[in-house]
Amino acid sequence: MLSERRLEVLRAIVQDYVGTEEPVGSKALTERHQLGVSPATVRNDMAFLEDEGYIAQPHTSAGRIPTDKGYRLFVDKLAGVKPLSGAERRAIQNFLEGAVDLDDVVARTVRLLAQVTRQVALVQYPSLTRSSVRHVELLSLASARVMLVLITDTGRVEQRFVDCPAPVGENLLADLRARLNSRIVGRRFPDVPPLVQDLADSFEVDDRPSVAAVLATLLETLVEEKEERIVLGGAANLTRFHHDFPLTIRPVLEALEEQMVLLKLLGEANDSSMTVRIGHENFHEGLNSTSVVAVGYGSGDEAVAKLGVVGPTRMDYPGTMGAVRAVARYVGQILAES
Amino acid sequence: MLSERRLEVLRAIVQDYVGTEEPVGSKALTERHQLGVSPATVRNDMAFLEDEGYIAQPHTSAGRIPTDKGYRLFVDKLAGVKPLSGAERRAIQNFLEGAVDLDDVVARTVRLLAQVTRQVALVQYPSLTRSSVRHVELLSLASARVMLVLITDTGRVEQRFVDCPAPVGENLLADLRARLNSRIVGRRFPDVPPLVQDLADSFEVDDRPSVAAVLATLLETLVEEKEERIVLGGAANLTRFHHDFPLTIRPVLEALEEQMVLLKLLGEANDSSMTVRIGHENFHEGLNSTSVVAVGYGSGDEAVAKLGVVGPTRMDYPGTMGAVRAVARYVGQILAES
DNA sequence: AGTTGGCACTCGAAACGGACGAGTGCCAGG
DNA sequence: CCTGGCACTCGTCCGTTTCGAGTGCCAACT
Fold first, then answer.
1. Is-above-0.85 flag for pTM?
2. Could you tell me which chain B residue has the CA closest to the CA of A153?
3. Between 20 and 30 A from B312 (CA), which of A186, B17, B35, B199?
């Protein structure tokens, strides 16, 4: 077990390194923090911390920098969540309240988050699988071509084209629309399939294939994963770190363009509590020197999607966590109002 | 006027510089191209070209690089549009045909364009102002709260919330929906306003304020500019150039995050023909060493939106122009089919 | 007039090398 | 267990040198 003072030394190292971005030595530490001991003692502690894998030195005769394990300990045990100032909170609220629709809420959120944290922001669209149905609309485009529009309680709209095996009349369409809505409006997506399973049977034999086609498309839309879109912003902030190596920025940019990767980054986070994944804890090369701070947000008690930021492992964790949490809360409020 | 050979020298300089990314000298030029003259002669020509402002030298005793003016001449007079290979064309077509809806078409297009050109790709959503109305749907959310859904012939869907001054019954809603659709379906957006101007008058006095509110929101949606969204991809390609200066990548990334800037970049392009804007011709600092190649695309004869790429001024213009044009054509085909 | 070879010159990039100093590990004494 | 002292390491900084690609100019040639 680490003694109280050694923990304190680790905390000091993390704080200084995050501030200066330079390896921190024993002398500088004692000068900038009241540890009550001499540099020599700190050196011993540092040697111990290094043996345990919490810190490392880039090269001999240089200062120490925290390892992923060190940051992990810092986040778990040593760091609180720094709340935002009142002014910042008001600014967030004002900015979000100007949004006109869901797209706008998401767009504003991502900009806001990038600006406040000065890092790369990720915002997942309210997930379909946790949403419920507000309305289903069917439109006739051509005789055998139908457009299906699905509206969720989070304000999201999905549309699909359906090619039916037989012509579909307006009466049939109206009938289907009415029955469909009466059955599934207000239902959660996962609950829908059993509710519509036998719906085709109640129609004329000739119409059943067409009805089945529409239903199939509907169910497909409900489970569609690819539509768990994630919006990204603040990529320019990447240039604030890595100032030496455009080489290191490359893989990060590439990773950020892969929706699948982003989904994983946010997706593995636990539902409501905040998740911090540090360095190699992200299962993706190229993100090995970045950390992800993510948290769920939602219109009510339950999280419907996630948002978060991606930054260097050497980030200001307390501040970032505070900002992420605050933004998530306000977005939740805004969504609840609409 | 420039002699034939001097033009040839300029072309050779552009080609070599684009290939090697290094200033090109007189000796190397004569070795790599059959100009039929000696380095000394080329030196004279270079001096002339420099006087005229087509090329410049980064420092004394270095080779020459083309200026913006030089690239301009190259693009206008010396370069053709290099068509893609058959294999590339087939790959494009296959990739685009897998799209399931408009969002998917756009997403695939931007990825494709970034991949083919190995640069940053921009794709503008089919513009609202050139679209026509396919259907308007009205849904009751709460007694005095209505959701308006507008569907365009390009498959795009816009939704808005409307807060009405008075409760809106289902009958009223159905009535309004029917009348609205009968008047404006199939119309171009700019033609809509006069068609609905007097619509409120034909309703009960009590209902008129609510109807007016819905109409107001509808008209607002029609003219909304901000929704001329532009999707961007391939930002990682930025790191292929600028390998020396992460300093230069910064402003570009920042500019690319501003929707307004992107709109301008694409928007000033002429309707159907291809536009190439080189270096300072882009009215935005930070994009002074980048060029934009843009072209309109559309489902029919007319362009409904633009797409293009952003790359360094030292880009392969013929190849890029060929790729951009090819992608635009195939996207147009795909849109026409759906 | 246009082209060519020769030549002196410029100047950035790369290689070299020593001084500097922050930082370390270790040890003996408090 | 803490502390001051000390020898050692090694990366960074900075001035110097070397090297060579490239240039401009000029006289000679066609």
1. no
2. B141
3. B35
